[in-house]
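Quick one, tokens below. Sequence please?
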């Protein structure tokens, strides 16, 4: 009589564990559903944030490059003014030369400064072209930045709306899940969480369906099906490692 009573207690205990696990799974699946409802929005928002930061850095680099080009052009213009002043001075000196040697020397200096002016003008043209291209790149980056910023604002609002709609419901479900966790022994709970983490669909416990595992759909031997139905011990699928529960025990009516 005592043995039969002990057996009944074990049966109730294992069935209770399985039902608690299934209840916890239902809460966690609902939280997963809410996260799925948010979709890829959190990742999209993070990606847009990174992209906008990258565009800001690119625009800043272009602006520094443009400033450097402008400074270089100003320097070249300064050189031209210096060379022109020298040429003017040498031309005046030509009027007072005393011999051909001085004339040749001044002529060479004028020629040299003239070449310096032409070289500076060439540099100014090149820098002007580069500056034009850089300004175009800045304009294009600013247009893209404006578009991305607009996209980010839209995505953030969309995400905020979804979060505000689902936050209260999610918090209530999380409280229920935490309360259910306290009814499950720590070792079993840890094993369940590990199984759930490795499962693609987040299911750590599944009902058997038409004689197969409800997680991976591999066939279950008849004797094991009977053991699952009796609920005297916790049985895991030999293929996917999920805990299996009888549909009736889980409150599911098979169609």
């Amino acid at each position: 009589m005592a043995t039969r009573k002990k057996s009944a207690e074990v049966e109730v205990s294992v069935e209770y564990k399985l039902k608690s696990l299934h209840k916890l799974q239902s809460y966690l699946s609902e939280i997963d559903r809410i996260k799925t409802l948010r979709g890829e929005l959190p990742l999209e928002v993070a990606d847009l944030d990174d992209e906008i930061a990258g565009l800001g850095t690119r625009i800043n680099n272009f602006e520094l490059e443009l400033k450097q080009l402008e400074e270089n052009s100003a320097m070249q213009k300064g050189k031209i003014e210096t060379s022109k002043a020298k040429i003017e001075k040498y031309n005046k000196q030509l009027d007072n030369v005393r011999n051909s040697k001085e004339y040749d020397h001044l002529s060479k200096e004028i020629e040299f400064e003239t070449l310096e002016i032409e070289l500076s003008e060439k540099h100014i043209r090149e820098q002007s072209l580069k500056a034009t291209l850089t300004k175009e790149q800045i304009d294009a980056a600013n247009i893209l930045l404006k578009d991305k910023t607009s996209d980010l604002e839209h995505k953030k609002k969309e995400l905020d709306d979804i979060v505000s709609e689902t936050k209260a419901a999610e918090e209530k479900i999380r409280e229920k899940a935490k309360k259910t966790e306290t009814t499950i022994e720590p070792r079993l709970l840890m094993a369940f969480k590990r199984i759930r983490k490795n499962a693609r669909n987040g299911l750590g416990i599944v009902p058997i369906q038409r004689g197969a595992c409800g997680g991976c759909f591999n066939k279950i031997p008849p004797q094991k099906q009977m053991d699952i139905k009796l609920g005297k011990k916790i049985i895991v699928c030999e293929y996917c490692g999920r805990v299996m529960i009888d549909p009736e025990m889980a409150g599911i009516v098979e169609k």
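The first strand starts at residue 205 and ends at 207. The radius of gyration is 40 Å.
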